[in-house]
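Much of what follows relies on a compact textual record of a protein's fold. With that in mind, consider the following protein and its fold in token form.
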Amino acid sequence: MSEYKTLAEMIRLASDEPAPLYQQVKQGIINLIRNGHWQPHQRVPSESELVSNLAVSRMTINRALRELTTEGYLMRLQGVGTFVAEIKAFTPMLEVHNIADEIENRGHRHTSRVLLLCSEQASTASAQAFSLPPGAVLFHSRIVHYDNDVPVQLEDRLVNPQVSPLYLQQDFTRTTPFAYLTQVAPLTAGEHVVEAVNANALEQQLLKISDTEPCLQIQRRTWHRENVVTSARLLYPGARYKMFGRFQQQS
């Protein structure tokens, strides 16, 4: 069975769906990439070949390929062709998600390694972040999260004991801080700052990256009603993660 026939069959199977044809083409290509039929860096059929094999308009194929390129599934080289991109995992830019769910939704296995889980006195800056007096007690956790045994996030988190008094008793190799805190103190507000940074030597070792690889850092605070629940620094290897956000104009 050729790859063109496989894609054509996927689209025919979806022909009774209300989705526009270009979206069906997109999903068919995404399925071929996700199931490994099309590998990273493999050249994909040209627009003309896809038009011929799928019996759809060039406009439909062009839009599907353009959007797949924008979304990071394909890369198009002028005068050379279109290739399957090396897919990076992504983290939603304006949303707060459980990293274990993100990884498992990609069909991968999430594991974690707890580096630190303790109580400590808050520094002046940390106390201000929680609207607590300097020297107040905070809980501190530091965890590396893995996607199929590859480190993809270093999570350094401070937690308000007044909101989550049992935090230190949790097994964060079986759940995540996000999942636990969402249960005991559901998120009602949040803020975060995103920037590109260089990891220090220890962080490079934990994330298994070189000293020249930039990282994506998210500094995030979340509230439950009037109380700050947590202040977290999330560090992602830049070559393994990208940010994604979708916006809609309010009428």
Summary: Residues 99 and 224 are 20 Å apart (CA to CA). The helical segments are 3-13, 21-34, 47-54, 58-70, 99-105, 124-130, 177-184, 201-207. The radius of gyration is 22 Å. The chain has two domains: 3-84, 89-244.
